[in-house]
Amino acid sequence: MPYQRILTVQDISCLGQCSITAALPILSACGHETCIIPSAVLSTHTGGSFSGYTFRDLTEDIPAIRRHWQSQGIRFDAVYAGYLGSVKQAAYVRELFDTLLRPGGKIIVDPAMGDNGALYAGFDGAYAAAIARLCRGADVILPNITEACFMTGTEYRESYEQSYIDDLLQALLALGAKSVVLTGVSFEPESTGVIAWSEGESCYYRHPRIPRMFHGTGDVYASAFTGAWLKGVELFRAARIAADFTVSAIRYSLDDLEHWYGVKFELALPELIKALP
Ligand code: PXL
User: Fold this and answer.
1) CATH, residue 94
2) Using a 6 Å cutoff on CB, does residue 215 contact ligand 1?
3) What residues make up the domain containing 70?
4) In angstroms, what is the span from residue 71 Cα to ligand 1's centroid?
5) pTM of the model
6) What are 92-137's pLDDT values in tens digits?
7) If you measure from the C-alpha of residue 196 to the centroid of ligand 1, how many angstroms do you get, rounded to a whole number?
8) Structural domains in the chain (count)
9) Angle CA(243)–CA(183)–CA(244) in degrees, nearest 5?
């Protein structure tokens, strides 16, 4: 069981159970050392009924931290990028990939930028294009359908056939990533699932669709996938383990109507640990 040193670059939403506050405990539970570069610090995430949140942009800290680590000879087994605070950060994160990965180190990009056919507050087409460029050379990218559409210029649809998803996968692969895990793929009302594409093969994992929308589930999914995959779990299986963990985290949160801003993924961590080798 490999012990990996992972660098994750995403925001700190001080309250919100997303981004770094989800990635750190999930990757730690998977048994990895986790280092962080915060892309921004917000008082809460920007979704749901939060308004008036603070936003401190940390763009210029990224190259400064990189230079310090380079001076100390620090290298990472993987860099996992999530929600970034600005277009400029995408170029800085590319420099992290180029300079801080050990030979053979892995790149994981969760292009966190939107859901349900819309971009999150503060993002625009230029941001989607910058993150699409960041996907070039990634080992795995993990968009939902909204993010896949914005990055590939595909029309967003609420309902679709297999051929729409096949075309979307091909358009994503054309961005230059080696493997794609597309989340929130639903062909019928009562179920949803993930499609993973890797080395010429694809695999669909269907699971129940829970009829309540929660924030941060994409971050919880991407962190669990990354933790499992970097543990040496085969990609399709890691995609399933992460889906089961996310569904369980949602179930733990369902009966608490006041807990609308995130999922209680902490309660499902023992199940994630048990599912790992
Ligand atoms: O969960 C994605 C996410 C991460 N970070 C911030 C967000 C969101 C989604 O709204 O606002 C700051």
Assistant:
1) 3.40.1190.20
2) yes
3) 5-275
4) 32
5) 0.98
6) 999 999 999 999 999 999 999 999 999 999 999 999 999 999 999 9
7) 23
8) 1
9) 5
